[in-house]
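Z., the sequence and structure:
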Amino acid sequence: MTTAVAALVAGAGVLVAATPASAQVLPAPASATLVSANPSDLTPHARDGETRAFAQVGDLVIVGGSFTQLRQTASSAWVTQNYLFAYDRTTGEISSTFRPVLDGAVNTLVAGPNGTVIVGGAFKTVNGVSRKNLVALNPTSGATVDSWVGRSDGGTVRDLELNGDWLYVAGAFNWLNGTAHAGLARVDAATGAIDPTFNVNMSVGRNTTSPYVWSIDVTPNGDTMVVGGNFMYLNDLPRNQIALVGLEGTPTVLDWSTQKYVPPCAAPATFIHYVQDVKFGPDGSYFIVGSNGGSGWPTAYCDALVRFETGARGDSQLATWVDFTGNDTITSVEVADGVIYLGGHFRWLNNPNASDKAGPGAIDRLGIAAVTPATGLPVNWNPRRSASSLPTGTTSWGSAVPVLWRGTDGIYFGQNSDAMGNEYHGRLGMFPLSGGRTVTPKNPTTAQAGNLYLETADGELSKAPFDGTAVAAPTVQSQPNYAGAGATWGLGDRIYWAHTVAGTPTGSRIDISLFNGTTVGAPWEASGYNDWYNAAALTGTFYLNGRLYYTRSGATGLYYRYFEVDGNYLGATEFTAPTSGVAWSSVRGMAWVAGKIVYGSTDGKLRSVAFDPTAAPVVDGTTATVVAEPTAELTWSNPALFFTAQ
């Protein structure tokens, strides 16, 4: 496993940021299903406190938290019901029979075996009987399942994770079922009986506080658990805030650690631990971490969403990608249907270049967002935790979205406020799958033969057939819509291009035009969130698998930024790709063609060189070949060069 560091240029400043944690890990965009941005109108409302957990048994949705009252609609009278209730997901009707009585808040829920719901939290009694912090209930009647013996005798339960026959328990306890277990334990899901073979314990809290485990998740195949919370050691091995545990055979702390959660963030006494939530991807190959903490990045992953690779081993692991909010908290994450959802009190994503304000590249996302697992950039989904009108006595904005959870019909959210999607949703709600859409990734054609297009005069393109090794005689196309063009890349039925436009913040912008091989359509701006970027400085560019590779005037490297085609958002962080043997400062125009970079140069020649984004270096210039010499018709020295199959 190798790590690397690259200079990152953002606005006028220079930061240092990690490149992907492994040269072999290059996540590719994939198709995804995005829920509707319009929350369901059926969900009931809670008051005070917050919603922290959901579970589903049949059509019954069980809801837990620190709330104290409920109502069916915005005009209904409030009814006292502390910490736990249920409702029918098809009608929204609150259950009149599931009315358990707890004396403390619910932190976590799972639908257990045999039609039960298992509840973890900070309570001492349930239905008038001692049941410390952990209990199984009948989801219809709310009655305690007396035969289920799980108890957290020594402290609160913060998280539960069901995998197969095992229920994993995490929290601030030192005893479970009368057996010494510090922060982590495993019980038989059907009976609650402790598993004596699971002996993984956390110790030593940060900043002289008592330790606890805050969040856990287990891979779908059950072989690995990720653990996050306020601890510095796991089984006496240094693991600050986060660790991986192998669950095959005897559970063991794995050889995986990172230093990015060791340094303090802005206020260590307030943000004792800043790992807030952890979640595996659908195949378990990666996991996502959301954090709070205030300033402290990029030294530490404070106020950031990050992706780590589960199979990596060794210390000092770096994230595959990092999405900084610019000093705002992420409190929950969920990975579902090819999308990463996150909630909190952040205001922006893609915002590494400013603190407590929108910097160059910042994308507006108020407290709720969806990003792609490949790049961490947002997709075009923006419900916002806000509303133009709310009932009296409610609040539009709060500090936390404690839970995001994928139910059978959508993404459920719990919050400590009452606005979402420009509507009233008191403390909870659901974004339905119905009315959502498919996110379809785009990539350049994989065809080896097609056409190279080169701007030979303003508003004019020369179309030259290209078979991967040689260029045929060109034909000239008048393209008035392409006037003022710079570096260009082809993607499916369209081209993206640097367009000189008077009155824009930089004098240029990234535009899109439909292109069928004959006509460049009227351009439109790719995204207003990109107007900070000086596209006219690009001297060549191509797109591949979520990355925009480019050269730029006055610079000597091959660079890349993440680029999300669903919203056409440009990443705020610049990375330098490792290369050798190419004078990138001389490049004028680039295209990716069947695994090679085809590029022009200030000497007018067209060259080709193999490109492997998973290798180091990604380009070896000693293997470059000359494809075409300059001629009277074509001099390959213009940034406006692109390749398509049309």
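The chain has a mean pLDDT of 95. The longest strand covers residues 450-457.

Let me know what you think.
H.
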